[in-house]
Specification:
Blueprint: H1 12-25, H2 29-50, E1 54-57, E2 64-67
Antiparallel strand pairs: 1-2
Length: about 70
């Protein structure tokens, strides 16, 4: 697999969030970025190819949140 290197500048709040996600998941920061990009790509494909929306809901299916801006 060919690899590419990116340099990304982020603000303090995003840097702290990335650090927190890395700690909580036990994954390196680079993997947090990969997972985030993958999630965004899947959300885009669900929207564009299948007309779906992306969201979250509780186990009882009562509380729902639709994520907008994808």
């Amino acid at each position: 697999m060919e690899k590419y290197r990116f340099t990304v500048d982020v603000n303090k709040a995003l840097a702290e969030e990335i650090e927190k996600l890395a700690r909580e998941t036990g994954k390196p920061k680079s993997e947090v970025f990969r997972l985030a990009i993958n999630l965004l790509a899947h959300a885009r494909d669900a929207r564009d190819k299948r007309g779906m929306t992306v969201g979250a809901w509780s186990d009882d299916n009562e509380t729902k949140s639709e994520f907008i801006g994808f």
